[in-house]
Amino acid sequence: MMALSPREGAALAMVVSFDSMAAELALAQAMTTIYGGTVVRYGTVMGLYVCAMGLGAAYWARTPRAATPMTYAGVEALLALAMAAAIPAAFLGGHGGALTMALVIGWLAGVELPVLLDACHAEREAGGVPKVLGGDFLGSVVGAAVVPAALFTTLGLVGTSGLVTALNGAAALAAAARADAPRAWTAIAPRALAILAILLGISAILWRNVLADWLALRAFPA
User: Fold this and answer.
1) Rounded to an integer, what distance in angstroms lies between the CA atom of residue 210 and that of residue 161?
2) In terms of Cα–Cα distance, which of 194, 190, 195, 143 is closest to 19?
3) Which end of the chain has fewer CB atoms at under 10 Å, N or C?
4) CATH classification of 6-219 is 1.20.1250, yes or no?
5) What is the mean pLDDT for each group of 10 consecutive residues in the chain (222 residues)?
């Protein structure tokens, strides 16, 4: 059975941890825009995110099956779709929609790291686990620094959400390319979901101003 190398795992971990951090920051900023209270909104969203990450990791630790690259691709495809839904949920679903998406993204982000470590057999290679964890931590740090300073100001909330959705979908496709059984339905579904996420992400980037105006009209009716 094919497996990701720890170096490939580190690269993927860097990308998807950047995406997860960016998605949560965008969600927190959306709640601040709608409801005010910057500190409270950021604290609530990030607190739920970290809590859900722990729950996701604990869930996978109790799962008896071993992860494969296709397992990881499926998790990342679902995470990409959750990222695509986060900003609309915040504007259209109120507090409940926004906080639900914070939990969903956090839970999937908690699942993804142990799945990745398993899929790339990191524990079997000297330095494998630190490589993957290092990539994960670095991606989070870069996301925390770059997203508020650069992406929010250039792409806005909708465009930033679209970018990380497309990146996460691409990461899912990259992992799927290293998997066996390309004709099995379990291989087709993650690829299809990843392609859908990429298309949604690109559309959100291209139509970010139109979508942002539409969401604002729904959140703040005249």
Assistant:
1) 14
2) 143
3) C
4) yes
5) 81 96 94 87 92 94 83 95 96 92 96 92 77 94 94 96 97 88 69 95 97 91 72
